[in-house]
Design goal:
This protein is α/β, with parallel strands linked by helices. The protein has helices at 7-13, 16-23, 25-43, 60-69, 82-89, 132-141, 161-174, 193-202, 222-229, 233-239, 246-257, and strands at residues 50-54, 74-79, 101-104, 117-123, 143-154, 206-218, 261-262, 265-278. Strand 7 (261-262) and strand 8 (265-278) form a beta hairpin. The longest helix is centred in the N-terminal third of the chain and has 19 residues, at 25-43.
Length: 280
Amino acid sequence: MTDNPNAAQIDYWNATAGETWSRMHDQLDRQIEPLGLEAMRRLAPGQGERILDIGCGCGQTTMALAKWIGLSGAVIGVDISRPMLEVARGRPLPADARQPEFREADAQSESLGAAAFDAAFSSFGVMFFSDPVAAFANIRAALKPSGRLGFVCWRPYPENLWMRIPMEAAQPLLGPTAPADPTAPGPFAFADPARVRSILGQAGFTSVTIDPYDTRIGGGDIDQTVSLAFRVGPLGRALQETPNRAPQIAEAVKAAITPFDTPNGVLMPAAVWIVQAMAG
């Protein structure tokens, strides 16, 4: 796939990132599951529907969708990460659900079927396209004329304390970091709702709604939460440049997240957009 426009993302999610998410999928699933389930609830998959799960990763959302639509429905999960798809294919099937199909495919450029699905869903899997308009046009082509789109994506970084607080605690020990391009493929590429609305409109979607949703996520203990922060998100990326400072940074992060420790684990504020649209 070296000539694929998403070649850099394909390489990234088949190497370090894909291996990390595969190894830590239980904790990562627990971290973001409430956000995906809220977006799924609003999409309201129906019994017997055909659903496309975009950027399905390790398959947690795909299995949840399979439970929604029952034995008469069908779910296809697509992702570019081979390590994550291996985890997805090994997941136990929920009761009264039909086994989903998992495909290694790039939803931006590869055919997903023509008017084949009642709905397309994604939990944090649509912010990594090199050409998001082309990607959503391709996804729309896979939907029936009455098809629905629903996904969840991050609001701006400053609003997501579960990522911001560990990074701010570590910053004095990391030194200056270069500002990220807000429109480059990455976790916060869809933080601007006006940009999301424009992309979907250019791709042919209508009746676009973009609603804020806030909750607290996590559930791990202090050490598990620090370990996760060290491997994903902005702090995980920054530590790749200064791994020798990890012990001091760990102590600073522990102190910063301790106020969020509860009897149910460390729970920190998360801020997302829940986006819905129609294909026609």
